[in-house]
Specification:
alpha/beta; Spore Coat Polysaccharide Biosynthesis Protein SpsA, Chain A; 14 helices; about 350 residues; 8 strands; globular; 2 domains; 8-stranded mixed β-sheet
Length: about 350
């Protein structure tokens, strides 16, 4: 049987309330020559029954069932079942607009030097209401792994379309916990261009159960892992041995709990300079995430972040100013919430006037 033009890869875990609408938005695509590969990662709710119904309703749907192993294992399992030249990612709680796949495929076919393409989205909450104030993807060409925090080659992961050959060439997904997409994009950018279409091609759901949004614990893991992925990219550029990412590290991070403990674990493979870079990069990344996530750094985070700030003296002036901006903006927000201990712990004396001024302005 001839492969479809695009395989849509959807990992699913306990998504009974949203998966039907997500899959139906794919079945309604203007591009009809597609195959939908759904990987049920050991769901324990009504998801398997719903998937069975969907499979019976349309022969383009293929269901792969596996024991629960997490997102990376589910994605790599699904990738092994994909046969099309192009793979489109999608999540079981999002809604794609009808022209999404057709527009992305047209771009990739028109620009053979582009290995992956994303798009703009509208953010919604768990009930489907619009969510404002969240970052939108810019140009991946502006990515800078040396910056603190790294300017990542950001494409919204559930709205990615990638050449399957490129995805296989870079080895698929790695266990870069809560940042497997960022790590993938760094590696894909080494073999081709990445591009974000300006078109809004779907709804992207933000809710309490999302990996990066659920808790400050997940935020710490993302902060550390995303910056470790950037250091990994820098190593490859200079021909140094790459960092190894292990499935067990997520459990070690969770057991450590604190940002300091996670950075200590992540630094086991790093030299002294890389470890100092990671301390500050993960610290400022956590502040960046807290700016649009439903959590704030706690007192231990603030103490660790402040201890990492001396490394900023070695940064270019523009990057130093960015570090100060994140610290003072977060301190001002903490102060407005009455969390004065955290605000004072985060701000060295030189930053306090800026933080106080920001707190008074809003």
């Amino acid at each position: 049987m001839r492969p479809a033009s695009v395989d849509v890869l959807i990992p699913v875990f306990n998504a009974a309330s949203t998966v039907r609408a997500a899959v139906e938005s794919m079945l309604a695509q203007t591009l009809r020559d597609i195959r939908i590969v759904i990987v049920d990662d050991g769901s324990r709710d009504e998801t398997p029954a719903i998937l069975k119904q969907l499979h019976a309703s349309d022969p383009r749907i293929a269901i792969v069932t596996k024991p629960n192993g997490g997102l990376v294992d589910a994605l790599n399992t699904g990738l092994r079942h994909c046969r099309a030249d192009y793979v489109a990612r999608f999540d079981a709680d999002d809604i794609a607009f009808p022209g999404r796949l057709e527009k992305q495929l047209q771009y990739l076919e028109a620009y053979p030097g582009t290995v992956a393409v994303g798009c703009a989205v509208e953010h919604i909450d768990a009930e489907g209401r619009p969510v404002a104030g969240l970052p939108h993807p810019g140009s991946p060409a502006l990515a800078d792994a040396r910056r603190i925090p790294a300017t990542e080659p950001y494409l919204i992961h559930p709205y990615l379309m990638v050449r399957r050959a490129g995805l296989l060439d870079v080895g698929g997904y790695r266990h870069v916990h809560n940042s497997e997409d960022s790590d993938l994009y760094w590696r894909l950018s080494e073999i081709g261009d990445l591009h974000n279409l300006p078109d809004v091609l779907g709804y992207y759901r933000m809710h309490a159960e999302s990996i990066s949004g659920a808790s400050v614990l997940n935020g710490r893991i993302m902060a550390v892992s995303s910056q470790l992925a950037a250091l990994s990219a820098l190593r490859r550029r200079r021909g140094a041995p790459d960092i190894a990412f292990n499935p067990q590290d997520k459990d070690r991070y969770r057991a450590a709990g604190t940002l300091a403990g996670m950075v200590r674990i992540a630094s086991e493979q790093l030299d002294e300079r890389e470890a100092e870079h990671l301390r500050l990069a993960a610290s400022i990344k956590l502040l960046e995430l807290a700016g649009y996530r439903p959590y704030e750094p706690d007192i231990t985070d603030c103490a660790f972040i402040r201890s990492a700030l001396p490394y900023a003296k070695a940064l270019p002036a523009g990057n130093r100013n960015e570090v100060r901006w994140h610290c003072t903006t977060t301190a001002a927000r903490l102060a407005r919430k009455g969390r004065y201990r955290e605000a004072l712990q985060l701000s060295p004396p030189a930053f306090l006037p800026y933080a106080v001024a920001k707190a008074m302005l809003r």
